[in-house]
Amino acid sequence: MSENRYGTAVARYFEAWNAGSGEQIAKAVAAAWVEDGTYTDPLADVAGHDAIAAVIGGARAQFPGFSFRLLGEVDGHHDIARFGWELVSAADGTAPVAGSDVITLAEDGRIRAVAGFLDRVPPTA
Fold this sequence. Notes:
6-stranded mixed β-sheet, alpha+beta, 6 strands
């Protein structure tokens, strides 16, 4: 399997997380995930394009002016890849949130499942 397959899948993943409008998010999710794909992290456990788009939209609303970026390299084998990411402020470059995700790919290269982990989160009051 080509390493490029993993990089392509992760690039589409970030396109979805960084899309601006609801329509753009929906389009990017459809390009990145299979129809019955899943997304699970400590705050969400959803399946299907609409539910995944809603989770992404909620995160975008919670962190306006921030974007997700790859942290380090994508590591993959078989149909599985892992990578780190951080949520970065356009205003000052700080990254208050960071995590790592493991994705499982379908035969067509789209994401079948995401297992996400939060490695750094802002303190709560």
